[in-house]
Amino acid sequence: MLANGSEVETVLSIRDLAVTYGSGKSALTAVEHVNFDIHKGETFSLVGESGSGKSTIAKAVLGINPTSSGSINFEGTKINGKLPQKLRHSIDRKIQMIFQDPAASLNERATVDYIISEGLYNYHLFDSEEDRENKVRKMMEEVGLLPEQLYRYPHEFSGGQRQRIGIARALIMQPDLVVADEPISALDMSIRAQVLNLLKKFQQEAGITYLFIAHDLSVVRYISDRIAVIRRGRIVEVAETEELFTHPIHPYTQALLSAVPVPDPKLAQHKKLIVYDPKIHHYENDKPSLVEILPGHFVYCNKEEEAKYRSELAAVAN
Ligand code: ADP
Ligand code: MG
């Protein structure tokens, strides 16, 4: 239930997901025991260091990577594993992707007009050539590109403009869910905010749901409704953004937050860097899982840690 009384609608639901690359001796389990839900119209961010498994989860959601166990439900339909071709095709329109590196993800030999139209062609989403052109021109305008740039090629654009083309290509499909895998990491600082604002604008206008991926907590604070922190293929904490920033519970999240730069130099002086030591956990017998410690606030812990976290929270509350 939301504060305004309306029910939360779940767009994506991931349960006990695991993805293993390779087999036999060279098998690598990249992610395991992944659990989270994404609600309609929200920005849900997945944050973790490079190699922690963020793109693996993104690719599993998009059906690019096969999953080893668990389930991915999208709007009530299980979408991992083998799907009937028609269903796969329809899901592939509803879930769109924005990539980290727009230079590598755009076809260099195609014009912007073609790149943005490709999905329209694949799904026959226009009535006439005129209709298609109108749709593409409108989308160009929405992402802040000019109509005269329609017949140019990707290499003629800056990184920020190329990301705008990538956003146009995804959003012209009117998706329900957009997976944005580090969409601003490759961009100059000065244009990152512009691209984030553009994504926000589409969300407000079209009610799009985002799975936003970043390796830096400070980037996601201002755009996320909820955040999941991932470490070495395990989700260690999930909470609403302000809750996570003000009351981080998992020691790894606390360490990450201690490294986030503080804009105020006076406050920065008093900031202590916390170093995370995974040896503090004793998971040999008492096994961990993702536990809802407070309503909507999940922490990866075992029974002993859960009791400790709960007593610490009770001490603060009293
Ligand atoms: P992130 O996006 O958080 O940087 P990835 O999901 O790309 O992390 O990678 C998670 C782990 O899986 C890393 O150890 C990476 O080396 C490994 N990995 C990713 N893709 C493949 C692949 N196609 N084959 C084998 N290992 C992979
Ligand atoms: Mg990645």
TrEMBL record:
Which positions make up the signal peptide? Answer: none
* GO cellular component terms listed in the entry, alphabetical order: plasma membrane
PANTHER family, sorted: D,D-DIPEPTIDE TRANSPORT ATP-BINDING PROTEIN DDPF-RELATED (PTHR43776:SF7), TRANSPORT ATP-BINDING PROTEIN (PTHR43776)
Chief subcellular site?
membrane
Q: Which BP terms from GO are recorded?
A: peptide transport; protein transport; transmembrane transport
User: Do the record's keywords include Hydrolase?
Assistant: no
Name it: Oligopeptide transport ATP-binding protein amiF
Entries under Gene3D superfamilies matching the protein: P-loop containing nucleotide triphosphate hydrolases
* Example of a GO MF term: ATP hydrolysis activity
Q: Where in the cell is it found?
A: Cell membrane
Which lineage is the organism of this entry classified under, starting from the top rank?
Bacteria, Bacillati, Bacillota, Bacilli, Lactobacillales
Protein transport: is it a keyword of this entry?
A: yes
